Structure formats: structure tokens, C-alpha cells
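Below: protein 1.
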Amino acid sequence: MIRDLCDGQLEGAEIGSTEITFTPEKIRGGVHTADTKTAGSVCLLLQVSMPCVLFAAAPSELHLKGGTNAEMAPQVDYTVMVFKPIVEKFGFKFNCDIKMRGYYPKGGGEVVVRMSPVKQLNPINLTDRGSVTKIYGRAFVAGVLPFKVAKDMAAAAVRGIRKEIRDLYVNIQPVQEPRDQAFGNGSGIIIIAETSTGCLFAGSSLGKRGVNADKVGIDAAEMLLANLRHGGAVDEYLQDQLIIFMALANGVSRIKTGPVTLHTKTAIHFAEQLAKAKFTVKKSEDEDDASKDTYIIECQGIGVTNPHL
């Protein structure tokens, strides 16, 4: 996909290969289609293409096909409800239109992403978590799965959250995905907590054969609660997705996180190698964080400028 976005040369990109050689050229805007032909995640396609098309010569329209709610990747609901509003703080906007939802193992989902290029990215500062003001979400079923599964996931998640957070109304909507907007069968849940300073945290889980609906709901609730305990301003899954934007931005970015994930350490390693950005990771010195495993990731971005604008 990236080869096509920038008229590049790509060698060794086949199954069984242990080495690839990629030579990019000028990043082109316009309409591009990428199809995993499996339940491979459309959100991972977006993750890799977004930093490129931001520095394209013209606006882009990306037709991404595969799984929208798949394991080992962000659910598209996370991408739209958590990643999007936070990443837009770097000074750009994008639109993500979910045409069709797709699940493991069939895939068949499609999202259309539209975005315009920018001259430069602004640095961000996400260090003030604030207090939780709202908790909401959606529990979904698609295809042949009964609606009761969505209701059970939602109810179990609400019960799980109430154990720790009693003073907030928890609004998790059970949803039956319309037949014409979902391919195949699937179920899952995403729960989002919003804070007074605009920080967003999520917990999510997907239904699997042989796993009862209550457990799926409880797993999502547990994940959300764990992400609210560490005192960071981003959840564990947003950390690594912000690194490349911090590296490319013009100036110093800072984010406060819980324990730094291996994904984040890897992203920092490559951003430093490839972009020559400088990162520091330090334990938070804030007295409120003294008892918690909280860190500040700081980056001196390289201030990439779009040559086409």
C-alpha cells in the first residue's frame, strides 16, 4: 500500500521472505485502495498510511478493506472514538466513513478515509488527565448472533465498572449491526471514559466461539479500569500510535502514560533511527503519581515540512 502511495520500489515483499528493500518516491494524494483479502485490520492499514498522506501533494481518499473489528488490532470504533480526536490535536483532520463492518475470519469490511495534507504537524502536550466525567460505549452483534448477546455484554460491563466507579452513569448501548452494513458474524464491545480535560481511555473485547458474553463484557470493563488506575493521560493502546506523530511534529511533545509498552519502546526505537527524533522516557515526578507506575514520554520532533505545500 505504501509503495503505491508513493510510487516506490519494493522488493522481497512476499510470504517467506526475510528481508525487504523499499525505496520511496514522491508521496501522491488521490484515491487509493488496499485490500487485505482477509480479516486483516483496516485500522493497521490506516495507521501505516496516515503519516505518509499527511505529507502528500494533494488530498487523499483511502479505501481500506479487511477486518474492522478484529483481534490484535484496534477496533474501528477505537480508531474513530479515541485515536481520531486525540491525533487531530497534532493539527489536522480526517474523516472515516465505515461502509461495511468485517470480522474474523471472513473480513469483507471497508472504510473510506479522507484527509488533506498539512504543511507541518504541531507538537502536543497530553499530561493533565483531569477527572473522569463520562463513561459510554457500544456492545454489538452482527450476522446470526442473537441480540441478547449484546445486551448481556453491556450489562456485565456496567456491573464490572460499578464495582469501582459508583457515581457516574454508565451508558453502554447494545447494537444489532444492520444487515447491509456488516459482513459475516461477529460480536464485541468497546467502553470509553472521557475526562474533564478531554482525555479518552478505552477498554474493549471481541466475542469468540465458546466464550460467554458476560466474560467479554467483564474483560472490556477490566481493561478500562486498569487504564484509569495508572494516572496516565493516554491508555496503553494509544501510547505507541502517537509516537510517529510526535517524531514528525515541529517542537517538543509530551505525553503522560502508564507503564510503557513494548510496542511503544519499539516505535521509539525506529522513530529515533529513521527520523532522528530524540525521545526521553522518565518516571513522572508529579506527587499525585508517586504511588503509581506513571511516565512522561517527551520528544523533540524533527519538524518535517511538506515540500508540496
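Below: protein 2.
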Amino acid sequence: MVKPARIKISSMMPDWSQLPDELLNLISKNLDNCFDVLHARSVCSSWRSTFPFPSSLLRPSYSLPTFADIPFVSEDLCTLEKIHLFLYRVRTPAAALPSAYFLGGIGRDESEDHMELPSPLQCSVRVKIPGPDSTLMNILDCQIVPLGYQYRMMGWNPEDWATDYRGVAFLPLKKEGGREEFVVLLNYTKNLYVLRSTEMRWKKLKVTSDASCSDLVAFRGRFYAAFLNGDIFIFDPYSLQRTPLVPSEPQRSSKYLIPNGNDELFLVEKFNPFPKCGRIDFKRFICRVSRLDEEAGKWVEVRDLGDRVLFIGHFGNVCCWAKELPVDCGVSVNSILFTNEPGSVTFAYKYGVQTGRVEDDLNCWRLSRQIRVTILNTFPVVALRLE
């Protein structure tokens, strides 16, 4: 009996670099997601040259003078960068395993056009986790949610920078003669410093508050600053004159300012409801949330954030829509997640949580204890594990 001849089938990876230019141009016109563009750039070197790096992920930067001795004039330079923030969900192989998330920024790897890719279809982003090496995380299988942006000072690291630097805010000014002008407000060493692009020189802001600044943001063309003694001021970027903006019921509290894009500005006050009990129990701290009524010039307390979620702590304070978040990310509609809580385990804050204790007020925001969130590390990215 004669055996039938075996047919040899060869499975070859298609050579995507040979795709006609007409099809490449057609593909590029239909990629409206910045991470889809990154995926396309990861195919091969010819695709990277065809698809420009997404402009939404570029980091606009400004060279600024560093600090020297008074009067703060220096020939050395540092960089102010605009960093886009994202929440990355790392898919686990088994549904029963805890979900892992990274909260942080993304930028262009300067060596990406020269790196050798392990496979023609690798789509990855370099995430720096504490350790000797960086980690390549495959973003093809990641769920990625944009969380806004923040400005950050880069390239200057004095020994006291980590403890004395508390944030920076940037505002573009009206262009005169076609030249871009801007003003920067820096929260550093318990003081506020201002720099104008027309002068490129740091000056101490003289009229602020008697206390240190705890939070600083830019919103709708003005600076907003909260101070440890409860003061909140608006600073005009041109005159730098201050306007008080006091909460309806001032509390001795930690204050956080959270812009929702250019649409809304929220104030979250976190405080101990029983300050005279002697022992501080951070798990019983509560929050009050207010929204800025810009026309009336006052804060209005809110009990419902609607479909919004607030992230507060490391990498700045951001607001996003809950419908964009994965269902198991530890926060849901109308909630607040702090990533700077004492310890490594936290929960989201929600309004009207039942505690079973008669003395606890229901008309506030407190820990919900629905999903436990473990903070694995906070620098250079925030790594979260949900259980």
C-alpha cells in the first residue's frame, strides 16, 4: 500500500515592511487613537518612519533657569515638561488573579527608532519600576485610560528637592508680536516663586499667605493655591494680585484642588471628625467635596460627583469619567481614591457610607471598604493591586 505524500505547509510571518505606501497612508488616516499609532510604529522601522509619534503624547518643554543664591539668578538650566497621565490595566492570565494597574506618564523613548524589536508585532512601553532595569510592558493587551496631564520640573535634583518641591503650575499668556509668552508659579521651600518668559528670572511672590502652600493648580487662565492654614487664593497671572476664595465652612483640613479639564474645579477637604479624642485614626477621616462656582466666586458643597472619579495624591490630582475606567479598578461612579494614604492599603471614599456607629455622620465622604487597593510603589509610577 502506497502512503500518501505529506504536504509540507510553511507558516511564514507576513513581511509588513513590504506593504504598499498607498495602504500605509490609508491606515494612518484611520488611526484616531494615540496608542493605535504606537502599535503601528512598533511593527517595523519603515512603519515608524511613516507614522509620526502621536502629538497628544509629546511633552512640550521649556528651558528655565535653576535656583542659585538670592536673587535667584542662575546660568544653569532645568526643564519644565508637560506630562500626560494614564491609567494602564495589566491583564492577568487568570481571571481569579488580582488586577494590576499603573498610574503615570508616558513619553517618547529617544532610542525607539534604533531599538531591535524581539518580534515584528511587539507593542510595548517602557515602565521604570524601582530596580536595576526598566521593564517593557506590552500595551497591546492593556486597557489604557487618559487621566489628564501635569507640569513637572525635570533635570535639576538638589539634595533637598524631593522634600522642598511641592508642585508647579503653568499658564500661557496672550501672544504679543507672534511670540509665545507664559508665566510659571513654583511651590518650593514653603514659598511661591514666579517666573515670566519675558524676564526668565525667579522672583519670590511677596503677598501670599502666612502658611505654606499645600496645593497649586492652573484653571481657566488663573492660578489657584491652597494653604495649610485654610487660606485659598486666586492669583491673576498678569498682576499676580490675590483674591480670597474661602470654603463655606472652613475646616482644619488637608486641601486638594482637582481640575476637571477646563470645565470644573473641585476642592476636597480631608479632616479628622473627632480632633479632640487624642488618638488619630486615619481610617475614620472624612472628606468634604465642593465645586467652584466661578461666577458667584464661591465654593458650593456637592454630595454627588455624578459619573466622575477623583484620583488624589502621587502624580497630581486628576478627574476622569467612571465609564472610561475598568470595572475592577477599585473605584466606581461618584468616588475618590487617595494614592498618598499612610500605609500601603487603602479604599475608595464614597458619600453616605454606613459604618454601624451612631456617632458617625452619614452626610460626608468616608472609606467604603468595598475593594481593597494595595499601593505597591509610588515612584516613578504608582503601581496598584486590587483585591
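The first helix runs from residue 21 to 29.
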